[in-house]
Amino acid sequence: MDERIEKELISLLPRFRRFALGLARNPSDADDLVQMAIEKAVSRIDQWEPGTRLDSWVFRIIQTTHIDQIRGKKRNDRFLEVVENNAQRSHDGERAAEARSSLDAVRHAIFNLPEEQRSVIMLVSVEGLSYKEAAETLGIPMGTLTSRLVRGRNALMHMLNSPEGDGSKSTDFNSIHLEKGATK
Amino acid sequence: MKNETMTIDEGTLIAYVDGELDSETARYIEQRIERDDVAKQFVERHREIAALARIAFNDTMHEEVPEHLKSSITRPADVHYIEPMTSTNVITIPKRSTANWGYALPIAAAVAGLLIGVGGGYGFAGKKHEQNLRLAALNAEQDGIAMENALNQALEVNLNDAPMTWSSPASGQTASFTPVNTYQDKTGRFCREYRKDLAVNGKTSSTFGLACRNDKGKWETRYLIFENGAKSL
């Protein structure tokens, strides 16, 4: 592999780990995910088109690897997953006030987003990709990207506004009424 | 779009927050939100959340990247060509929080010696470690057969960093064998560094070894480094 590509990949590792953490939701799974994705990326580096963003290309590999993983897991852990979610929620209620004061709350809220919204939020809001880049990275149309982004951002706002930390007492921002005449 | 009067949708406001609008539309939105408190509040709150999301994951950016991730780039698995060994590239062994990897250094030096044919000395090691270390050849017959098989299996099938565990039904002694690095020597044989963790009666010890695979699929340990105080096998 070209030494420059090698160097660039190494310098991007912190961002790969950050994105993977957003998807996998715990640091050790995140590093496993990065490891797997990097191995794939390195083995098929000839498929990357020079001139395009290397980070987006690897983000995509991380994301598809992650999706493959959860598909595999779901078959086995479906029941367990439901139980865990319930336990988490009541626990949150108890320490919502404490958690809200820190960035943990934000991370936690992002972790609670559905898979498809989470990957969009991670790419756009955390990694700073443009809508177009994020849509290309995820292989989805722009319209799908923006609708996931709006739903994800609103869900985050609800979670972070609500005293329960789960959005149940949030303000409804779903409709904003403005004067006539604006264009998109 | 349930209401006729709703002309700026959330998507546009969020796109405004994300800097995704062309400058003309952005200016228009700016004028509008000056006159609309609901929209203004919406934009401000989303701005805040976008900023929080960015900094909420900042810790990861400042953490040290685990060595094994770096080496999966610089030394990918499953390649037939393996870089010539030098004292600098041999030493990049994944860090283990549970073990003192000062001990890994002599292994690396031993590997380097082995591969470049300078001999098996470990003079490369820092002097301060020397007194605590013993480099010994392993006589395979002296090992328990079961442990030997577990080790062989670990080296044969496990990926780097994946432990193979074994426990004695009789004594309760447990052992875990973890390959940590893989090389190919000059003659094309595969050699692996591994870590062996033993637990007997609540006492644990770690050993680091280097084994090479012979033609018959048997992994022959060539060097062992015992942690301070551990007994020779």
Q: What can you see in these coordinates?
A:
The complex is a heterodimer of chains A (184) and B (233). Chain A is mainly alpha-helical and 184 residues long. Helix content of chain A is 73%, strand content 0%. Chain A is built from 7 helices and no strands. Chain A has helices at residues 3-24, 27-43, 54-100, 103-111, 115-126, 131-138, 142-161. The radius of gyration of chain A is 18 Å and the shape is globular. The model of chain A is unreliable at 77-92, 95-100 and 164-184 (pLDDT under 50). Chain B contains 9 helices and 6 strands, in the order ααααααααβαβββββ. Chain B has helices spanning 10-17, 23-35, 37-56, 58-62, 67-74, 87-90, 104-116, 127-130, 145-157; strands at 135-136, 164-167, 174-184, 190-200, 203-213, 219-226. In chain B, α1 packs across α3 and α2 crosses α3. The longest helix of chain B is centred in the N-terminal third of the chain and has 20 residues, at 37-56.
Question: What tags apply to this protein structure?
Answer:
heterodimer, A: 184 residues, mainly alpha, 7 helices, 73% helix, globular, B: 233 residues, alpha+beta, 9 helices, disordered C terminus
**Helicity of chain B, in percent?**
25-40%
Q: Assign an overall shape of chain A.
A: globular
Instruction: Tell me the strand order in the biggest sheet of chain B.
Output: 1-6-5-4-3-2
CA-CA gap between termini of chain A: 45 Å
- Beta strand % of chain B: 15-25%
Radius of gyration of chain B: 29 Å
By DSSP, the count of extended strands of chain B is 6
Distance between the termini of chain B: 76 Å
Judged by helices, strands and strand pairing, the structural class of chain A is mainly alpha
| Order of helical and strand elements of chain B | HHHHHHHHEHEEEEE
What is the mean pLDDT of chain B? 70
**Would you tell me the overall average pLDDT of chain A?**
78
Helix content estimate of chain A = over 70%
- Strand-residue proportion of chain A: under 5%
